[in-house]
Design a protein that fits this description.
Lipocalin, ten-stranded antiparallel barrel, 13% helix, globular
């Protein structure tokens, strides 16, 4: 009887440990928020890495989950867009975006870090022998309302805004 209680206690401890790990490692589930149709407005500014522009567009994200990966194809008004697969690194607590080289730029492999309502995609590229750091910051104002901005930096301390805007989910 005592041995049975010990086994039950060990099983309960193991189960609670697995539950805590599952809560600490969200896997790709948080990315479900990107699914659907979104109205996007943005303003881009003149920098060495961006040109001035105003944009109003409707995007559709068709996404699916397969095991530990989450794949999205983003398309805009009658134009198919890039396809990307995200995987989650439990130890680093970051997502890695794996672009499909045929449809997207294979050089940039952004990492996605989630800190509460702030989601930051970060990557780097070479420019004339210098490393330039880029990031796209999404600040969720609610589950279907995102304020965003894209920035670049040469030192990861001083950031210059390239664009900013707003996304609102308008449908499935």
């Amino acid at each position: 009887m005592l041995q049975c209680l010990r086994r039950a206690g060990l099983f309960a401890l193991l189960l609670s440990s697995l539950t805590l790990r599952a809560q600490a490692a969200p896997g790709v589930d948080p990315l479900n928020v990107f699914e659907g149709t979104w109205k996007v407005t943005s303003e881009s500014f003149l920098t060495p890495y961006s040109k001035p522009a105003s944009v109003l567009v409707t995007l559709h994200n068709a996404c699916s989950r397969a095991g530990g990966a989450y794949t999205c194809r983003q398309g805009g008004e009658n134009a198919p867009g890039p396809v990307a697969t995200f995987t989650y690194d439990v130890i680093k607590k970051t997502f890695t975006r794996q672009p499909l080289p045929i449809l997207d730029d294979p050089k940039a492999e952004p990492k996605l870090g989630i800190d509460g309502a702030r989601w930051t995609f970060a990557w780097q590229e070479a420019d004339n022998g210098n490393t330039v750091f880029f990031r796209l910051i999404n600040d969720f104002q609610g589950p279907y309302d995102i304020a965003f901005r894209s920035e670049y930096s040469l030192d990861q301390t001083h950031w210059t805004i390239m664009s900013e805007g707003h996304e609102t989910r308008i449908g499935p």
